[in-house]
Design goal:
mainly beta, four-stranded mixed β-sheet, 8 strands, 0% helix
Length: 86
Amino acid sequence: MMSGTQQIAIRDFAFQPAELTVAAGTTLTWTNHDGAPHTVTFRNGMADSGTLSSGQTFSYTFATPGSFAYYCRIHPNMVAEVKVTA
């Protein structure tokens, strides 16, 4: 289990890693390494990065435990999940 700040790469039309377990209080930062725009959109509506162009980042701090599925609104086949532990 990780805490602090962790990185997720958006590369080759995928979130890398696609599954990640972190401790509550962890900040994740997504970076778009693709030439195409992407989003980080949580299915429960808690956050949405808006459109990220190549090289742009989005950060979110997970305060509470749970499983949080997200996807790219532009490319809905891009899916991933963050599991947050207490």
